[in-house]
Amino acid sequence: MVSQEATLINWVWVLLAVHRAVFGQERVYLRALAMVQGEILAFNRHRVTDLLRSVGLVAEDWSAWYRWWERPKRFVEEHAAVVVLGLTLRLVADSALYVIGVDSTQVWRDSRRMEGTSWLACGRAPKWKVGIHRAQRFLNGSWLTPLAAGFCRAIPLRFLPAFPDKAVLSAYAPHKEHLSGLAFVQWVRNQLNTHGRTAQRVLCLADGRFDKPDFWRGLPDQVTALVRTAKNRALLHRPGPYAGKGRRHTYGDQAPAPQDYAKQRTGWQTTALTVRGKTRRTVYRVEGPFLRKTMADVPLLLICVRGQTWARGGKTRRREPCYYLVNAVQQHGQWVLPLPVEVLLSWAWQRWELEVVHREVKSILGLGDKQCFNPHAAVSSVQWSAWVYTVLMLAAYQAWGLPTPPAPTAAWYRHPKRWTLATVLDTLRAALFTQPDFRPFFHPSTTNWPEMEAVLRQYSLSLRAHLPFSGG
To answer: Same domain, yes or no, for 24 and 138?
Structure first.
């Protein structure tokens, strides 16, 4: 058995053992363990056949492995998400802020008949020539780890389908991306309430796609949303005191657009933020409260962050001003920010971690590579890849913390400031290659699955008998 030290490979096995109940039958769970091993050991593409070849199953009947994603009860994404969220609660005190982020991403497809595919704006096209491509759209709802020296990691909790109305739909209903994001926020809030954390405040980070009235109106209690907004967003002042004549006004006068505040010389404040090990001087101002049309009961505060200009490498670089809306809370008759502005600005920098998730899970872990054309498998195979990424990153966070990565496995590698998915896979492969018990995984043969299954069962039963925690 692998020793129970807090090393990366041990944490991966422990987290997989915690997810045992997600997979139902034992044989399904053992196949899941083998597939996770294949995801780690596959060096190029991550198609089903690539995963099986990476663990030596070159003469197996591959149809059974494809059916693994076609059966709805074999891998239930929401059940796995409940386990992962339970694990994250052990890392965040009930008095601390629970930070999540929502963002949509596209999975490039060629087929015009695959479930969920539609014509979407192509992110690979240059800005000056917008193009379209065939793709599936998913909502990435992630938990952000507590900050350490300005570093954090986004760990996906759920990967929800957010297919447009014109997509190919037979097994799934269409969902707008901001409503899918709202559904995720409500799910997180309900899960926290189920765990007895009704008073814990949730901070949700989102980009401009989620700056919609339906999103703001549907936010549950104890949830703060920090959403980037457009520079020309139409805002309204709150109505003045009732004068006793005529109908009570719902909205006040038109307020200046966010970009108009950037022209003012006074009213700015300065703070120093620690972002990824560096101190960032930030100039900001807070305005409001404001209202928006159809949102008379949701007062918002506007945070304006001034742009910056600096010289690097003989070139002048500029960061454009950015603007954020926050749902306000009432204290002593005044509408104020629900959290200190320094906390909000620090977390605003970390929303980029969701983009890091999309880059790593697609380019390194092969999300979308699996050739699954069954309507259910076309979605569950994508959610499977996101779940594997979650397990690996959560294991790395448990083993290493933030931000210091482990020592590089090769002397000529430069020691980075933080670990990435490439670091995790490199360390896992080095650990697996030195395990004598994993010989069946590196010797392809026509009869090695029974021997491999016995090894997986031995590790699984041993770990489940000594679990340090459960996913509940």
So the answer is: no
Which are the contacts of 359, defined by CB distance < 8 A and separation ≥ 6? none
pLDDT tens figures, 76-93: 999 999 999 999 999 999
Long-range CB contact pairs, 119-122, < 8 A, 24+: 119/166, 120/164
Residue ending a domain, among 327, 358, 389, is 358
Are residue 164 and residue 82 in the same domain, yes or no? yes
Q: Quick one: DSSP state of residue 331? A: E
Rg (CA), the chain: 24
* 288 and 205 together in one domain: yes
Q: If pLDDT is split at 50, 70 and 90, which confidence band does 136 have?
A: very high
Tell me the average pLDDT of the chain: 88
Phi-psi region of 34 (alpha: psi -120 to 50; beta: other; left: phi over 0): alpha
Taking every pair of Cα atoms in the chain, the longest distance, rounded to a whole number of angstroms, is 88
Q: How far apart are CA 217 and CA 254, in angstroms?
A: 21
pTM: 0.89
Q: What is the CATH number of the domain that holds 122?
A: 3.90.350.10
Query: In the listed set 309, 330, 358, which residue is the last one of a domain according to the structure?
Result: 358
ω into 289 cis (within 30 of 0): yes
Tell me how far CA of residue 65 lies from CA of 248, 263, 347, 386, 467, in angstroms: 64, 60, 41, 18, 28
Mark whether 56 and 93 lie in a shared domain.
no
Q: Which SS3 state, helix, strand or coil, does residue 432 take?
A: helix
Is the domain of 68 the same as that of 128? Answer: no
* Closest among 154, 108, 15, 36 to 363, alpha carbons compared: 108
- Say if residue 302's pLDDT is above 80: yes
Look at the alpha carbons of 403, 404, 405, 410 in this order and tell me if their dihedral is positive or negative: positive
Total domains in the fold of the chain: 2
CA dist 402 and 354 (Å) reads: 17
| Of 219, 178, 253, the residue nearest 326 (C-alpha) | 219
Domain interval for residue 408? 8-75+399-464
The one-letter amino acid at 288: G
